[in-house]
Design a protein that fits this description.
7 helices; Alpha/beta knot; 2 domains; two-stranded antiparallel ribbon; 5-stranded parallel sheet; about 230 residues; alpha/beta; binds S-adenosylmethionine; Trp Operon Repressor, Chain A
């Protein structure tokens, strides 16, 4: 079973999107499981979870000792597994950027231990001490790591065997071969004066494949150009 354990100061955010539709079914089938560790429970008596940053500056930083207490507790969820085979992830904007190939690589692990930061972030020594893999989900700043944890978990879980209704869906999807997927259409054939492309109704599978691969290439180039412009 693939196990995901998330350390967060806001446990009420979970399971959220991780416990609906195909992911809920897969969890019932014991393909994966989720545990949430409430960071607030791990501060020592009379001490808060966070403190002012050394060197000054705005906001608060989550303390390394509090995080470590929660981390030690979180390890218990993986006690039947070799902890080496669990990816330990610190969510942070200064991490490597998450993408399809990282998601695929993470399916080869036994599970994920994900730490969500809040406020200004976490004491860097906690990351260093535990040799955590820093991951970002994009070039913007969220209020906390919880949405990022859901994004990563969802992207990984749907790639696990027997999670999707049709395993073939994974093979043709966006990013699988570095390309975006072609556009899709369904009934009705005409909607608001817009028709489904004729070739898709032709029954000519060779032509359909050709049309789809041309569209995929066109979309990939167009989006790559836009992304390059947005990045500059
Ligand atoms: N002071 C930090 C900075 O400027 O890089 C931002 C801290 S952010 C307000 C609080 C927490 O949200 C972070 O510790 C991290 O866990 C999470 N977070 C924010 N943006 C993220 C992103 N793009 N990817 C992953 N996690 C993110």
């Amino acid at each position: 079973m693939y196990k995901i354990n998330i350390i967060t100061a806001f446990p009420e955010i979970f399971p959220g999107s991780l416990d609906v539709s195909i992911l809920a079914k897969a969890r019932k089938k014991k393909i994966w499981d989720l545990n949430i560790v409430d960071l607030k429970k791990y501060s020592s008596q009379n001490k808060s979870m966070d403190d002012k940053p050394f060197g000054g500056g705005p906001g608060m930083v989550i303390r390394a000792d509090v995080l470590q207490n929660a981390y030690e507790k979180a390890k218990i969820f993986f006690e039947d597994y070799n902890f080496e085979n669990v990816e330990k992830i610190m969510l942070t904007p200064d991490g490597e950027e998450f993408n399809h190939s990282i998601a695929e690589a993470l399916t080869k692990k036994k599970g994920l231990l994900i730490i969500c930061g809040r406020y200004e972030g976490v004491d860097e020594r906690f990351i260093e001490y535990n040799n955590l893999r820093k991951i970002s989900i994009g070039k913007y700043v969220l209020c906390g790591g919880e949405s990022a944890a859901s994004v990563i978990s969802e992207a990984v879980l749907r790639l696990l065997p027997n999670v999707l209704g049709n395993e073939k869906s994974k093979l043709e999807e966006s990013f699988v071969n570095g390309m975006l997927e072609y556009p899709h259409y369904t009934k009705p054939r005409v909607w608001n004066n817009l028709s489904v492309p004729e070739v898709l109704l032709s029954g000519n599978h060779k032509e359909i494949r050709k049309w789809r691969s041309e569209k995929a290439l066109y979309l990939t180039k167009k989006v790559m150009k836009k992304n390059k412009k947005n990045d500059s």
